[in-house]
Write a structure and sequence with these properties.
The structure is a single chain. By secondary structure, the chain is an all-alpha fold. It contains five helices and no strands. The chain is globular, with a radius of gyration of 13 Å.
């Protein structure tokens, strides 16, 4: 995937997260994303940084959906997303 496509996906996931956010609790749920200090508008960030942000957003979104609708997302999906986040974080640190 090209960097500009990655940024577009990043932007889309931010919109999805905003739609799912019904109250201020979203701030607590999004802390992992917020501390990354990267948004889709940060085009100077690397492709790897946007990729990591996308994985973090996917994990947060899956958690929010699972909380709203019980049994809507299998636990293995969340676990796989958590593994992807951990792997991409390691890649960022070694790069």
């Amino acid at each position: 995937m090209y960097k500009d496509e990655m940024i577009q996906l990043h932007q889309f996931l931010v919109y999805v997260l905003k739609i799912l956010a019904e109250n201020d609790q979203i701030q607590n749920d999004c802390m992992e994303y917020t501390v990354l200090n990267i948004s889709p508008h940060h085009i100077h960030k690397t492709k790897a940084e946007h990729k990591h942000a996308i994985f973090v957003l996917c994990k947060i979104i899956s958690t929010l959906i699972a909380e709203k609708e019980e049994n809507s997302i299998p636990p293995n999906v969340y676990n796989s997303l958590s593994d992807l986040v951990a792997r991409s974080e390691k890649e960022l640190k070694t790069a």
